[in-house]
Amino acid sequence: MLCSARSAIANYLTWAESTVRQTIHRWNHHGLVGLWEAKGRGKKPIWTKEDWRAVEKWLKEPRSISSRQLSHRLARERQVFLGAEQVRRILKKKVALEKIKEKTSST
């Protein structure tokens, strides 16, 4: 492919020319599969299902617990280092997903 065509594609997509070149190369060698994201990309999860089970157990305790307290407890007892705001967002998402699951199962 001509360099000017790569440059035009890069400008249109607001990508670097090298990214366009690599994408075209993957397309030529692997077809559509070459455009999929490779495994191992992105940030790995910090916590496991066991950590989540521990949080659920802590939330069932009779006293209320804040996201900051959960964050500190995760760090102290499970060696999982998440900020209070991140813990709050994760809990909010989990509750929303459970509500959706309940709606779909009752329908």
- The stretches of 5 or more residues where confidence is low (pLDDT under 50) are none
Give the assembly state of these chains.
single chain
Provide mean pLDDT, rounded.
Answer: 86
Structural class of the secondary structure composition? mainly alpha
Number-wise, the strands total 0
Q: End-to-end distance, in Å? A: 53 Å
Describe this structure in words.
Helix 1 (3-13) packs across helix 2 and helix 4 (67-78) packs across helix 5 (84-106). The longest helix is centred in the C-terminal third of the chain and has 23 residues, at 84-106. By secondary structure, the protein is mainly alpha-helical. It is 66% helix and 0% strand.
Give descriptors for this structure.
107 residues; mainly alpha; 0% strand; single chain
Helices and strands in order, then pairings?
Layout lengths: L2 H11 L3 H14 L18 H11 L7 H12 L5 H23 L1
Q: Summary?
A:
It is built from 5 helices and no strands. It has helices at about 5-15, 15-30, 50-60, 65-80, 85-105. The protein is elongated.
